[in-house]
Amino acid sequence: MKKIVLTVLLAAMCVPAFSQKKKTDTRFPMYYIVEENGDTTFVDSLDPVWCFPKGTRLRKGDWRRQYKVVYNFNKVYPYALVGKKMMAQVDSVLARDVSKSRQRNAYTHDVMMELFEIFGKDIKGMTISQGVMLMRLVDRECGIPAFEIIKEYRSGFAANFWQLVARMFGQNLKKRYDPKGEDARLEELVQIWNKGHWDSFYYAVFFDYPPKTVIKRERLQSTVQSREDKRKRSEEEASLMRKSLKEAKEMLGSD
Questions:
Q1: Strand runs (DSSP E) across the chain, as ranges?
Q2: Are 171 and 132 spatial neighbours (Cβ–Cβ below 8 Å)?
């Protein structure tokens, strides 16, 4: 099967060199080439694939031996990329619209609740190893470890609490991403992804294309203004209720 794939690839690469005329029909995914002798050759483009020599043993560094790492990376890396976008959005809002600590606390609380809504179910379904990998990748993409993220956007108390929880499971939220050391293999997967070779690489490991991680949305809907509007509406409703209660008491008193 692999020899057939390679043969088709080579044929597809060589055909244009002998072509004289090409016609396309948008109704079909393939196109055809009319050769000088009048023969018609149908041509199609194929995604690149990773091929391994038949009969070779799996070596220690072979990704097929570490298929669980590849599978987990495919599942969690999209969350790290979306997290990077959302963090940039939050930083922009805080710099532009927040002037008081009360506003900051209210906004970051709304963001936290929205993140639970978007990612809560998915993250609860992750394994411990997937959760740890996600933390490492968030550090890589955002340039800040999980401990500092919690401390920056919530509080030092919350950061220390979750650090204690992580320690109970043998993890460390303060640990930094190390692309040349402990996380070197993970960095290799990131580079494959960034070069656009992920689908073919994943196929070479599992002989199937990777399932795509679907995320509800990539931008947060929470804003400082929406929080302020909500607070003002609550105050107006409370004021209206107090006024109505006062009028009701005056009416009863006059009777």
A1: 21-23, 31-34, 40-43
A2: yes
Q: Give the predicted TM-score (pTM) of the model.
A: 0.66
Residues 176/139, Cβ–Cβ less than 8 Å:
yes
CA distance 135 to 145: 8
> CA dist 52 to 84, 144, 199, Å?
35, 38, 16
Q: Phi, psi at residue 223, to the nearest 5°? A: -140, 160
CA distance 124 to 68: 19
Do residues 138 and 83 touch, judged by C-beta distance below 8 A? yes
φ/ψ of residue 23, rounded to 5: -125, 140
66-103 burial, b for 16+ CB within 10 Å, e for fewer? beebbbbbbbbbbbbebbbebbeebeebbeeebeeeeb
**Long-range contacts of the stretch 45-48 (C-beta < 8 A, 24+):** 45/12, 46/5, 46/8, 46/9, 46/12, 47/199, 47/200, 47/203, 48/197, 48/200
Whose structure tokens read 């009701």? 248
Token pair 């109505």 is found at: 244
Confidence band, pLDDT 50/70/90 cuts, at residue 187: very high
Q: Provide the pLDDT confidence category of residue 210 given band limits of 50, 70 and 90.
A: very high
Query: Which among 201, 185, 213, 218 is positioned nearest to 126, based on CA atoms?
Result: 213
Amino acid at 134: L
pLDDT for res 224: 75
Task: Give the span between the Cα atoms of 227 and 32, in whole angstroms.
Answer: 60
Q: Which amino acid makes up residue 224?
A: V
